Amino acid sequence: MLAAKAGREDQLRVLEKYLAGEEVAFKSHQGKDFETTYDPTVWDKPVCDPKITFDKQAIFLDAATQCDEATVVQLLDDGFDPNTANPDGLTALHQCAIEGSVKVTSLLVNRGANANAIDNDWWTPLHAAAACDHWRVVNSLIASNAQVDVVNVDGDLPLDLAEGDKTRQILESEMQVLGLDEEARARIRGRDELTFTAKAKLWVEDQTDLNFRGRCNETPLHIAASNGWVDACQCLVDAGADLSAQDEDGDTPLHLAAFFEQYKIVEILGAAGAKVGMMNRFMQTPLVMSEDATMIRLIKAIGQNQKVSRDGGDETSRRRGRSGSSVKRKSYADKGNLRKEDARRMMQAAAEYAEANVDDDSKGKVVYTSGGDPSSPGVVEATPALYAVPNKLPSTTAKEEPVARQSKKEKKASKKKEAKESKRQKRLSKVNANVDKTGSCTLS
Length: 444
Known about the structure:
Layout: H1 2-19, E1 24-27, E2 33-36, H2 40-43, H3 56-65, H4 69-77, H5 92-99, H6 102-110, H7 125-131, H8 135-143, H9 158-161, H10 165-177, H11 182-189, H12 191-205, H13 220-227, H14 230-238, H15 253-259, H16 263-272, H17 293-309, H18 340-356, E3 358-359, E4 365-368, E5 380-382, H19 403-431
Antiparallel strand pairs: 1-2, 3-4, 4-5
């Protein structure tokens, strides 16, 4: 202790001499001496304050989000483009519609912002304002010629997303002014499907290569499968489209149909011989792409049917367990456009379909026929519980977990569900990347 104290005192004495400008010798940690003299011109340089700079795009979009009118005006006066968008396609007008700023919304529109700009999920500012129940912004956008008859990738009109009564009333009145009754709205919602189906039939007639690739390496069958366009999918399958084609993520049409819970599409692809054992680049088979118990049973039934039809051939490709699956893709957000009513309708349609296809003489089997007889390889058989409403399905757990752990599992399931819905929006945006607003599919 005394030696250490003496050493520190010696160091302080040397430091005082050094600061006084005297030539001193310091000892390095290796015990070697080196001489030096304090030079104020070298060591007394002014210290600059650290500076962080952001590009104008980030500042502009943040100012719109914060409803900072002064900053928005300053950047617009400097010649900044009001239609600049972030990587998710959201413009400043989208941000104002989400935040509900009527003043900044009017400012942007008056300075040249496009009231009908669409993001990567085909949401316009009017979609965002309606979903967030900002009826004053809805009024302002309609006065600025925002279209009320456009749909997003889910086929939703702004009216379909309206949360509040006031917002719904404004949009309903504008629909009536345009003469759009319920029948006309239904045609608008199905416009993309009809256009794509017509183009698919034209490709078949012209003997076009049905496996041409889009920007994300997707084929027309990927687009039809993910959107649930039954007629287009059946047309492409009948014409010989490649069922095993993989997009940039390695997903086949069956992967996407399972992920978006398109039951009829999965049935068509399964009957045509789509492989349920193929893995994408995340080592996932179609079976692990869905958390829906009905979809899982359907894919297992298809896989069992294919196994039987091979007459004792090789086992299907090794599948990764569902417990190890994870969501690896995520997008900007699910901003209220996924409603419980959609899922309820899907389940109800599945239950009605199952009830209509139950054969009493087949001892509780649902027969999926695609023009063939029950003995053909393309027919899938499953139990009636396959299309049952989820709350009536038998439990999939072997035993009941202790009460102390149940709460933790519920939280985990809730997080997985939210991530899944976010992933759903991302994938639907990607597979539609080459479908423009008229429903056409363009080549990259």
